[in-house]
Amino acid sequence: MHHFYNQSAHLVSELLEGLAMSTRVTLSDHQDARIVMRSDWQPDREGRQQVALISGGGSGHEPAHAGFVGQGMLTAAVAGDVFASPGVEAILAGIRACCGDAGCLLIIKNYTGDRLNFGLAAERAREEGFQVETVIVADDVALPDAPQPRGLAGTLLVHKMAGYCAERGDDLATVHQAAHDMATRVRSMGMALSSATLPGQEASSRKTSELGLGIHNEPGVRQVTPDSADDAVTQVLEALGRPDNGPWVVLLNNLGSCAPQEMQVLKRACLDQLGRANVALLLGPAPLMTSLDMHGFSVTLAPADKTILEALNAPVQAPAWPTPQTVHDIETFSPRFSQRPSPGEGRHDETRGHLIAHLATTLKDSEKALDELDARVGDGDAGATFAAGARAVLNALNEGRLSTGENARLASELGHLFATAMGGSSGVLLSILMTSAAQQLEEEGSWPKALQAGIERMQHYGGAQQGDRTMLDALIPAIETLADGQSLEAAAQSARSGADETAGMRKAGAGRSSLVPEQALEGVVDPGAEAVARLFEAMAGRAGHR
Questions:
Q1: Fewer CB within 10 A of the terminal residue: the chain, N end or C end?
Q2: Which of 3-7, 64-68, 102-106, 376-380 has the lowest mean pLDDT?
Q3: Distance between CA atoms of 502 and 509, rounded to whole angstroms?
Q4: Which of 3.40.50.10470, 1.25.40.340, 3.40.50.1460, 1.20.140.10 would CATH assign to domain 350-544?
Q5: What is the mean predicted confidence (pLDDT) over 508-528?
Q6: Distances from the Cα of 46 to the Cα of 76, 102, 162, 524, angstroms
Q7: Are 229 and 242 in contact (CB under 8 A)?
């Protein structure tokens, strides 16, 4: 399964039904005439005063054309099979369903099947007494010498112009002329990195980049090798004639499977290369006239005179019509970063500096052992992460950037250091611990109480609790022991017991170990808890030698 389709034969009916479930449209109840019509339209009511607009063609171009049915745009769309024009009878049925005394305009993309079937339907409708006019859209400029240029995404601008005129009550001749004039002024060009995959078929073997392709999976005019999004846009605009005298209306169309990120990058390139001052109105980027899942985009240009801008900005209730956007220069502001005293400007305590250096060296020397533990339950970099923090602390001590004689300032400096020097979640968690502790130390000089407050914030943001097989299993009991007034030796024993207990925990509640099978955890001490236990043992040993 390559796409979320059911049976290929039911694709068109199912996509129209999906649209009708949440949009104010009504569907014909016969499979031989897949017609989508405005649910608020009656030919003997609205159709007496307002020109009906009908378009359509092969499916596979969604949201065109059914997505543009609604007040201010199309009255109805007639859908054929994928990449195949609807039949004459289906189009004629659409005319009969919509056309009232005000008449009807058929908007036709310049493909042979559409031109012939819609054209014959128009002739037969006239024979039946309906007032019907047609306009053919041929906005493709890929083949300048072609006698029959194709109709592409520019068709949507014709829909909108005709819808604007019809909505304000213009007669059929006026609507027809406005649509014709618009059709002669739009031009489109597309580029794709791969072709489309038809429903029920294997992926196409055409994987080459092509410029100047249609919307029915035809090969492009030529193969190209764009080396960037900027280059792709350059080639498309050059093929469009490199317009430089705006203002322009720009329609940026996703041909099917470009990611939103790609379309934004393409938009940026298009606006920069055209010149933002030359773009009066932007439509998209959006999938508007697609070619199934083709990985490509197209650019449509139209002159931005007063009438066209009024028409394109007029209100519309068609669900797929994008909100027109004006283009402007990028606005920027200067962010305010944290302002704090330069590190190391506080008082210094030589004895505490030696203790911190001893602890950092202990962690640095434990790198290999901690990595080996982590390799059994994680990605094998816990030791490297703690060692990176330890080296940063040692460097800061050597350069006098730690205020070892002031509790609150020291905790704050360590918090900033861990956040920048240590990768992964460990550095962030330890930074939260020390930053929160610093706030407590401003009010109270007790390290155990301050660290308990920091642990609460670690749990709040990290989500781990004691027993979840993390560094907290050693840290919490050690700090609780100190808060109870017991010695460093007792705290080290609590940390060691907590770390050793993690070897018997077969399920982790947080961290990477939570993604590891239970049997892989058995007998393995959590590397974060082991690091904490080694720190407290080193601290107790140092205290014991004083």
A1: N
A2: 376-380
A3: 12
A4: 1.25.40.340
A5: 64
A6: 13, 9, 16, 77
A7: no
